[in-house]
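hey
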């Protein structure tokens, strides 16, 4: 009798025990798809961790077509941008830059929409990058500037990338550049006609291959889609090396893009690789964490 009572009490105790909560596995994301924000002239899908402050120097020398006369463009004209950015919340970075080309200033925003996971439940990373630039030059008859909005240009891009192996990563992107005002010309009837369309569509393809733990080979290709009435831009082609150390990222390369702002490169590039019109350039990035 005592044995039966004890067995019944045990069964009751077992029935009133709450079931264990299911274990929720935390997502593990793929790291270091690229070494930093830049892959030559394009952004990457990477957004630094929260609290990261970054200082960038983007430098493009003159065209190499004059050869030794100006040391392959190194002593020719150059374009440079100084930029600052900060990741103030997770996956969202804002930035500001100043350019010596027409003394243009720019602001940017970058947001990691999706990130590749180690278990491939999300096979790619997807990031948005946006930029707005302003031409601050004084009004004069040679500039297509009437009011403030005529000074503005915009760049919007969606980037999709995958770290395929520990050494190789690939990325593709689609971009829309927009200029509020463009240069014009007088036709035979003395009417003003635009030389370029205000909007410009393009696609880009990029890749990185690590040859050592800290050194990688980089390639870029940008293909314009939009056809303009005049001065259609040439594709952007570039190849270079990325060398990374603690807190620094240094890239040196040769390519056809001579500007440091993406909308200018995509819309105004007249360097033709078939005519050996390349430029030598470098990017330097320095990061601090707060």
């Amino acid at each position: 009798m005592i044995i039966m009572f004890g067995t019944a009490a045990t069964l009751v105790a077992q029935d009133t025990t709450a079931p264990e909560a299911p274990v929720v596995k935390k997502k593990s994301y793929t790291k270091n798809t690229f070494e930093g924000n830049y892959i030559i002239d394009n952004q990457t899908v990477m957004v630094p961790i929260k609290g990261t402050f970054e200082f960038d120097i983007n430098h493009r020398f003159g065209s190499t077509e004059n050869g030794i006369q100006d040391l392959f463009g190194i002593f020719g004209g150059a374009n440079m941008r100084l930029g600052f950015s900060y990741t103030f919340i997770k996956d969202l970075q804002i930035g500001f830059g100043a350019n010596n080309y027409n003394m243009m200033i720019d602001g940017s925003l970058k947001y990691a929409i999706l990130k590749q996971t180690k278990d491939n439940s999300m096979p790619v990373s997807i990031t948005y990058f946006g930029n707005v630039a302003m031409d601050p030059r004084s009004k004069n008859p040679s500039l297509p500037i009437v009011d403030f909005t005529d000074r503005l240009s915009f760049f919007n891009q969606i980037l999709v990338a995958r770290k395929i192996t520990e050494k190789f990563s690939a990325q593709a992107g689609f971009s829309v550049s927009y200029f509020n005002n463009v240069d014009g010309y007088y036709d035979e009837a003395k009417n003003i006609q635009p030389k370029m369309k205000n909007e410009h569509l393009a696609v880009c393809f990029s890749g990185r291959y690590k040859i050592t733990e800290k050194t990688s080979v980089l390639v870029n290709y940008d293909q314009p889609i939009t056809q303009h009435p005049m001065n259609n831009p040439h594709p952007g082609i570039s190849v270079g090396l990325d060398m990374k150390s603690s807190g620094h990222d240094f890239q040196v390369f040769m390519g056809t893009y001579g500007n440091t702002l993406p909308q200018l490169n995509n819309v105004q590039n007249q360097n033709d690789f078939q005519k050996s019109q390349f430029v030598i350039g470098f990017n330097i990035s320095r990061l601090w964490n707060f």
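Residues 51 and 240 are 29 Å apart (CA to CA). The first helix runs from residue 2 to 15.
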